[in-house]
Specification:
By secondary structure, the chain is of the alpha/beta class. It has a domain of about 90 residues: SRP54, nucleotide-binding domain (Four Helix Bundle (Hemerythrin (Met), subunit A)). It has a nine-stranded mixed β-sheet with strand order 1-4-3-5-2-6-7-8-9, with helices on both faces. Helix 4 packs antiparallel against helix 5 and helix 5 crosses helix 6. It is elongated, with a radius of gyration of 22 Å. The protein binds guanosine-5'-triphosphate. One of its GO terms (molecular function) is signal recognition particle binding.
């Protein structure tokens, strides 16, 4: 049901000279357990075209050969184009890991024809100019599933939005209105700089449009907020690398494992083969929690009791490469940015993952709890400075009065927000859209 995929055309099949990874120096730990999925393979998922909303769907880069008559055909094919009777790939003999047993037949939807990714630095969060293909316009205006999500988003943001919305219940556009609005934005944890910017932008728009009543000003605020938030709106790219290695970080309890579980489900539903790495080797409950998501989604998981999280990550990426997985999701232990030794550990995981795949990690995501407001912004800064973030997942926006923090992030550190969460259920994680968010906040 997700519409976040953004497939890049695969690079020409030029085999890059990626040297076999050198032996991993650090960990001398026992081989991680590699659990094959326990359930029967799920039938191939089909996408409901009604769930994609043209105006909200990301712009796709669509390989010409996949742009068939169905707007979704290319997406389904993207993970389904492998010859069906291909033998299970053997583990990469050159990889300096414990031999990975040949996987049991798993519901691995096929990957695109094996084209090797171009070597190079991990992509940065700064949006690269990309040729876009407009989504065909013959879709319903607002699909029911997205409508349901919008209602949920509105309900979730009510606490943040209600104090802002009450500013516009009067009849006058005067200094008192702007002062009240300033207070409301600051209370919503929008931060001083973003608040100042929004107010200046709003006053300019009011003048320009000769707005005469507060209701019109509210509409113009939604426009100003949309503009401010737009740099955060970006699609997660899956398919440019095989596997796409995604490292997930954050403070304790931010919602990392839950978000990984939801994401796994959505990826699996879209036909991507996923491998999970339980790189939180300290907390047994964290491994178990991830294991439950792996079982539920019939995907493989690599985990290890105790030992080195970097070793687990290395093994997972090596296995992901050997098995032709589409995505490897690395779940790391929660940590505070002030715990310097744990931040060093994250850097090490990153380095070691790069040894397994010179182009990885392709995404380094920070999960932040929207309830923590300005503290979330501090986390973004600290994790970005330490490990270089490429994207964010903002959870728990349901019931928070601090949803304005996204504006603060857009102002101070505009790292793409790939997903936002407004609840604990599977369907409560969705792609971020600037206009939707601004409208939900001010509805
Ligand atoms: N209300 C709400 N709860 C959420 C959301 N996302 C996650 N949670 C809940 O937050 C709690 C913590 O989630 P986890 O996924 O365990 O967090 P974590 O970051 O992996 O935690 P550690 O492994 O301890 O660092 C769980 O009870 C989740 O159900 C959300 O969007 N809204």
């Amino acid at each position: 049901m997700f519409s976040f995929f953004k497939k890049k055309p695969l690079p020409p099949a030029v085999q890059p000279e990626v040297a076999a990874p050198p032996p991993l120096p650090e960990p001398a730990t026992p081989a991680p357990e590699i659990a094959a999925p326990s359930a029967e393979p799920a039938p191939e998922a089909t996408l409901d075209p009604a769930l994609l909303v043209p105006e909200l769907a990301p712009r796709f880069e669509m390989p010409a050969e996949k742009s068939g008559s169905s707007p979704l055909g290319w997406l389904r094919n993207a993970f389904g184009g492998k010859p069906p009777a291909e033998p299970a790939p053997q583990p990469d003999a050159a990889a300096p890991v414990q031999p990975v047993p040949a996987p049991a037949p798993i519901p691995t939807p096929a990957t695109p024809p094996a084209a090797a990714p171009a070597p190079g630095p991990a992509p940065s969060w700064k949006p690269a100019p990309e040729p876009a293909v407009d989504f065909p316009a013959a879709e319903p205006a607002v699909a029911p599933a997205r409508k349901g999500w919008l209602d949920k988003l509105k309900a979730g943001l009510r606490k943040t939005g209600s104090s802002i919305a009450t500013v516009f219940t009067g009849t006058q556009i005067d200094d008192a209105l702007y002062e009240e609005l300033e207070d409301a934005l600051l209370m919503a944890d929008t931060g001083v700089k973003a608040t100042e910017r929004l107010l200046a932008d709003l006053k300019r728009r009011v003048k320009e449009h000769k707005a005469a009543d507060p209701a019109a000003v509210k509409g113009l605020l939604a426009d100003a907020l949309t503009d401010l938030l737009t740099p955060l709106q970006k699609s997660l790219v899956i398919g440019q690398y095989t596997p796409t290695v995604i490292m997930v970080t954050g403070v304790n309890g931010a919602g990392k494992t839950t978000s990984i579980g939801k994401l796994t489900k959505h990826l699996a539903t879209e036909g991507a083969s996923v491998l999970l790495a339980a790189a939180d080797t300290f907390r047994a409950a964290a491994r178990e929690q991830l294991g439950v998501w792996a079982d539920r989604n019939t995907v493989e998981i690599i985990s290890q009791e105790g030992g080195d999280p970097a070793a687990v990550s290395f093994d997972a990426v090596s296995a992901g490469k050997a098995r032709g997985k589409d995505v490897v999701l690395v779940d790391t232990a929660g940590r505070l940015p002030t715990q310097l030794h744990l931040m060093e550990e994250l850097k090490k995981i990153r380095r070691v993952v790069q040894k397994a795949d010179a182009t990885a990690p392709h995404e380094v995501l920070l999960v932040i709890d929207g309830n923590t407001g300005q503290n979330a912004l501090a986390q973004v800064r600290a994790f970005d400075d330490a490990i270089g973030l490429t994207g964010l997942i903002v959870t728990k926006l349901d019931g928070t009065a601090k949803g304005g923090v996204l504006a603060a992030i857009a102002q101070e550190r505009p790292i793409p927000v790939y997903f936002i969460g407004v609840g604990e259920k599977l369907e409560d994680l969705e792609t971020f859209n600037a206009r939707e968010f601004a409208q939900a906040l001010l509805s």
